[in-house]
Design brief:
Elements: H1 8-11, E1 18-19, E2 36-37, H2 39-44, H3 47-68, H4 75-93, H5 100-126, H6 132-165
Helix pairs in contact: 3-4, 3-6, 4-5, 5-6
Length: 166
């Protein structure tokens, strides 16, 4: 099974904020894969960048599960594709809210999608479609998104409550 996670040599190179595109999905049919963020870059990245990077990883996971894996998987891969890419789409949509309530709604949906993605990652791992390293790398990024989204939801709810008391 090909590596869907960061490689150690790139992660330790402080002069390389992004990992080179992985060759596991390169074919003559596709264009060049964009670089993914390394752990150092993720530490300071805004949620928009993190959720987009995660969506790129989910797209590559979907491609892997449908085309490159020894045991092809179509149903769960489509589910994780939908939920995993929806996180970033909702974060992106939240950047232009009509109100604080609209922002909260979009971010809350992103949180729900990240939680659902956690379910699908666990299911894929527990049924042998992801090895431990692949699972832990993807799960670590998803857990980071869940923590950030939880914080944003709590802060926004407090802001809305405070404005209601005025």
């Amino acid at each position: 099974m090909n590596d869907l996670s960061m490689n150690d040599s790139t992660m330790n190179d402080k002069n390389a904020p992004y990992k080179k595109a992985s060759p596991f999905n390169e074919s003559s049919k596709r264009g060049k894969l964009s670089s993914l963020m390394n752990e150092e870059a993720k530490q300071e990245a805004p949620i928009q960048a993190l959720s987009y990077d995660f969506a790129c990883r989910i797209v590559r996971l979907y491609q892997y599960l449908n085309e490159d894996a020894e045991y092809k998987e179509f149903t769960m891969s489509k589910q994780i594709y939908r939920s995993g890419t929806s996180i970033g789409a909702n974060v992106r949509e939240a950047q232009h809210p009509q109100s604080d309530a609209d922002f909260l709604s979009k971010i809350s949906i992103a949180f729900k999608e990240a939680d659902e993605t956690s379910y699908w990652l666990n299911l894929l791992h527990d049924n042998g479609y992801l090895n431990d390293a692949q699972f832990h790398s993807l799960d670590q990024d998803n857990q980071r998104l869940l923590r950030l989204l939880t914080s944003i939801v709590k802060t926004t709810k407090a802001k809305i409550q405070k404005s209601k008391k005025r």
